[in-house]
Design a protein that fits this description.
single chain, mainly alpha, 2 domains, 4 helices, 68% helix
Length: 80
């Protein structure tokens, strides 16, 4: 709430919010962007799933290059 009230009214000309509005905004953001998992084991990508790491480690260098090229193609196709 303090951060909102200190920055946004001057920058984008929105109204200041009170405690309950900030709590509602927090809940809405958690639902839309992060769910209600408050631990460190959410959707964060930190080295991938254990089975994918094991699969990566068992690949040969040629397989890794092929894998990277395939994902690069997929990512380039998604760009507008």
């Amino acid at each position: 709430m303090v951060l909102w009230n200190a920055i946004l009214p001057d920058i984008v000309h929105v109204e200041k919010i009170n405690y309950w509005q900030s709590l509602g905004l927090l809940a809405l953001c958690r639902i839309l962007f992060g769910g209600f998992r408050f631990g460190g084991r959410g959707r964060h990508f930190q080295g991938g799933a254990p089975h994918m790491r094991q699969r990566w480690m068992s690949m040969s260098e040629e397989e890794r290059v092929k894998f990277k090229e395939e994902w690069k193609k997929r990512c380039e196709q998604r760009k507008p």
